[in-house]
Amino acid sequence: MMSRRRAFAAAVAALAAVAAAPRPPAVPADRVFLGGRIWTGDPARPRAQALAVAGDAIVAVGTDADVKRYVGPSTKTVDLRGRFVAPGFNDAHLHFLVVDTVDLTGAGSVEEVQHRIREYAAAHPERPWVNGRGWVYAAFPGGLPARGQLDAAVPDRPAFMTSYDGHSAWANSKALQAAGITRDTRDPEHGVIVRDEKGEPTGALKESASRLVARLVPPPTAEERYAALKRRLDEAVSYGLTSAQNASIPAADLPAYERVAAEGGLKVRFYFALPMVKDIAADELARYKALRTKYAGPMMKFGAVKGFVDGVVESKTAAMLEPYPGGGTGELNWTPEDLDRTVALYDREGFQIFLHAIGDKAIRIALDAYERAVRTNGTSGRRHRVEHIEAPTRADIARFKPLGVIASTQALFANPDQNTSEVYAPTLGPDRESRAMAFRSLDESGAVQAFGSDSPVFSMEVLRGIYCAVTRMTPEGTPAGGWQPQERISAEAALRHFTRDAAYASFEEQRKGTLAPGMLADLVVLSDDIVAVPPAQILKTRVLLTVMGGRDTYRAGDF
Ligand SMILES: [Zn+2]
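YS: structure for the whole thing
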């Protein structure tokens, strides 16, 4: 590891020496960007004015005078006119391919939720099922939906709606019937069929209980997946994304990526995590390894597995050290013994591991498993990750750096919206709330923190995420001063988490995440210098140009 890094540093130094030498470069650039305010993320040269691109890589970074020497007869020049340039954004945790269904994102009341479902159902009479996603707990009195509310919108067909975080679901009476769920149905392992005081299923399903109905929903066709991928790619590049780390890839989605890649339309680089299966069969493990060999980057890369240690706060399925107000401590999806054995196996096989851990107990169990695996196997440099880390204890925050574990957090999780104030925070209780989304504490611990969106849980808009990490306020500016403001971080730190640190989290910091000679030409041009402007201006900042591998993937009409 160390020698590779040193060799790379030497190569960079050699290129930098070329840039500084008073003679024309051997190879002119394809394109130069001049007159900008460039944030490089490179500690050796944090700010620059200009850069030159040849093929898919950056060949020079420096002043306009430095970079003009790379201009040849066919070199194109982009005059940045003082615009801000950063490394292309990298979302370190999302679920990229989302097939279009009823979108309940932002619906704040039962009436609004029902209105959207009715409209969709009316527009799609041919669909045997009406399904959708994105409802928030706070939209429903009591914090959970009920089947009668869904029957009122869809009486004639089964209907099934997943919560915004994907950890709970809502079925109407027809869907419960189709799944054979009655008062006599027992809760599945790690799941809850929510029941009323008479013992009848209410239509709300937590964690694994959702699958009792979800498995009946007709899966999207290959054509629907392909169309959805293209739509999501267009959306991602409009936010400045050049890389995305896909925290899950169903096997049926891979052909869509392959098809778009074959057409030359893959505008975002992908790192994929496969499900972390307990006691994985030998042939399945062989399939994982074959994918890792076949896809080694830079456009598509496999090499990680992802497991869920616990659930989520709102449904009280996140595993906590102390009880929730009103009782219960949540539940671990694994016994510590199973988790230790499974983590050790993937660690030994050279996979990076993502562990979803939200409650303080789950975070501790995840760190324990990593600690034991590394000790047992004698491995190092695996860069295992904990995903979400919503309510960590102080003691566990301090363990990330010494263990070399990456803190994979989501900037917009700190958005103090209605769901946060009405359901999330009261469910945590005041002590855990004071430790929630501890971005600053994690930074101060010295851990590498990579930011993501968990899209479609939250929007992929990186600039909104940066604004949120900086202010911990809603876009409307509430609450004044921010939610748990002691955990605010600077715009520069947030930008680093979405670029260099995210690249580190997928072992790609030697090719991307900073703007320096030898790095991939992945960059974004913004209307404003987000590091320098007042935070409110970050929300008004626009993405003007996204470049991936030297190719323009998005350009605002007026740039
Ligand atoms: Zn996720």
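YS: worth flagging: Residues 269 and 299 are 4 Å apart (CA to CA).
IM: good catch. Also The pocket of zinc ion is lined by residues 93, 95, 247, 454 (CB under 6 Å).
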